[in-house]
Write a structure and sequence with these properties.
By secondary structure, this protein is mainly beta. The protein has a single domain, classed as Sandwich (Hypothetical Protein Tm1070, Chain: A), CATH 2.60.290. The N and C termini lie close together (11 Å).
Length: 113
């Protein structure tokens, strides 16, 4: 569960090369946790979606069409709370992402702010 400590990594860091096609990564933590620290190391927005099951693709929203995809701006670092059933030593957290250009997302499971 999230708390008021500094972010504590609790697993390996994953790298996703994201472009105009959806990319999905299964994140596994070393011990139960429900947060991910994500760094968008690109020049365009990332649109990301979290799921406890595979196959839930992120999408880019438009003015007339809402979509499942949280916007993450270029060069930013965010800590997200993931689905409760994900990110434990038993289950995976699936992160799907899409962008309008080539970017890299660095993702680390853990806990804290």
């Amino acid at each position: 569960m999230a708390n008021n400590i500094r972010f504590q990594p609790m697993g390996k860091t994953y790298l996703a090369n994201v472009s105009t096609s959806n990319v999905e990564v299964a994140i596994n933590a070393d011990s139960p946790c429900n947060q991910l620290r994500i760094h968008n190391d690109g020049q365009t927005n990332a649109h990301i979606r979290f799921s406890s099951t595979t196959g839930s693709a992120a999408a880019i929203a438009t003015t007339s069409t809402p979509a499942y995809g949280v916007v993450m701006h270029p060069g930013t670092v965010e800590i997200f709370t993931t689905p409760q059933s994900a990110n434990s030593s038993v289950a995976s957290c699936y992160v799907s992402a899409i962008s309008t250009g080539a970017i890299q997302l660095w993702m680390t499971p853990g806990e804290g702010t």
